[in-house]
Design goal:
Blueprint: H1 11-22, H2 28-41, H3 46-53, H4 57-70, H5 89-98, H6 111-118, H7 122-132, H8 150-162, E1 168-184, E2 203-216, E3 222-228, H9 233-246, E4 251-256, H10 265-273, E5 277-281, H11 292-304, H12 312-329, H13 339-347
Parallel strand pairs: 1-4, 4-5
Antiparallel strand pairs: 1-2, 2-3
Helix pairs in contact: 1-2, 2-3, 2-4, 3-4, 6-7, 8-13
Length: 358
């Protein structure tokens, strides 16, 4: 059987076809046609393309011809004869937003459940959802701040971020408590081509530690860190003294959250004896305003969550090693929102004391 000549496909079309193949949202039929054209452009015989893609040889011939005559547009579905299906988009949207009836016993619609209720195809439901950007399967969280001093505290924290005081240092301090030293019951299997790193689902606990960290806003460096067994006012005051030693003879502005230990009488007494140090408290429920929380997320993802530790000292050594390496490559986090922008967005259509993160 004669072999068809390679299909002439311009480089620009190849890039588009490859993007179709990579896209997770592209219809499967269009992805298959893109694969046919790309393989035909490489000179693969029609029979071999059909075998690899598990389609008939005639299908390969058809889509080669459609591309040759119509280009990329020729790969699109053509309008079919007959009356097009009628889908009431408004009905789909309204029923989706109303939620499923209690008789179904489910918390949210799936495309197939709603399609069965409306007597249409689940593909039609999914198409309407994509058009109107409705995602019933997704759920997010929110939290209102009930702090009566919301506005004052937002301005007090954001101000030093955007306009650091002259000849002063701004640091963000917090503790990441209950970090567990977890060891797996069997050695982890490393990543391999086609296989993710694998670990046993069970583990052995070897204790916990609490990481105290101070992030310098101007540089992004962790200028002080310490791990303690507990996180009481004693540990916080001890760490605060460590931060003060790391920044001697300079005015120090420290951003902290509203944890009770940060306001202990002994902490207040020590601050009164050290007037160069000023604490700035984030509003209740708005600890995300503290930039060190970003670092805690980074160290969790990169060093703790997938780590294995045989003891608490082993965990502390790993944390210390990570912070040393992090400081070699760190960069400052850029805060862009002003207090007015945050408050305007936070209080729109809500009580003045409410606050959510977006």
């Amino acid at each position: 059987m004669p072999v068809a000549a390679p299909l002439a496909v311009p480089d620009a079309d190849r890039e588009v076809l490859r993007s179709w193949v990579r896209s997770p949202s592209m219809p499967s039929g269009l992805v298959r046609r893109a694969r046919i054209v790309l393989l035909a452009a490489e000179g693969e015989p029609n029979a071999e393309i059909a075998r690899r893609l598990e389609v008939s040889r005639q299908t390969v011939v058809t889509w080669r011809g459609r591309y040759r005559s119509g280009g990329l547009g020729g790969l699109e579905d053509q309008r079919r004869s007959g009356r097009p299906p009628m889908v009431d988009e408004a009905q789909v949207v309204v029923r989706t937003l109303q939620g499923p009836p209690e008789t179904l016993g489910v918390t949210h619609w799936s495309s197939r459940l709603l399609a069965g209720e409306l007597g249409i195809s689940n593909g039609a439901v999914a198409k309407v959802w994509r058009k109107w950007k409705i995602r019933p399967w997704r759920a997010e969280t929110f939290k209102f701040s009930t702090d009566p001093e919301l506005e004052a505290k937002v301005r007090d924290v954001v101000g030093p971020y955007l306009a650091p005081p002259n000849k002063a240092v701004v640091v963000c301090v917090d503790e990441k408590s209950q970090i567990q030293a977890l060891d797996r019951t069997a050695p982890m299997l490393p990543v391999r081509p086609g296989l993710a790193e694998r670990r046993t689902h069970d583990y052995v606990r070897h204790g916990t530690t609490t990481l105290f960290s101070a992030l310098e806003v101007a540089t992004g460096r962790i200028t002080a860190d310490a791990c303690y067994d507990r996180h009481r006012s004693d540990e916080f005051l001890r760490f605060l003294k460590t931060v003060a030693k790391a920044h001697p003879r300079v005015k120090l502005h420290v951003v902290v959250d509203n944890y009770a230990t940060h306001k202990h009488p002994r902490v207040k007494a020590w601050l009164a004896r050290n007037p160069r140090i000023t604490l700035h408290f984030t509003p209740t429920g708005c600890s995300w305003l503290n930039l060190v929380e970003i670092f805690f997320g980074i160290i969790t993802r990169q060093a703790i969550r997938r780590g294995t530790f045989t003891s608490v000292p082993d965990l502390i050594d790993a944390i210390s090693h990570y912070i040393d390496a992090y400081n070699q490559r760190c960069r400052p986090f850029s805060w862009t929102k002003t207090a007015d922008e945050i408050l305007e967005h936070a209080t729109q259509h809500r009580p003045k004391t409410s606050f959510t993160r977006h």
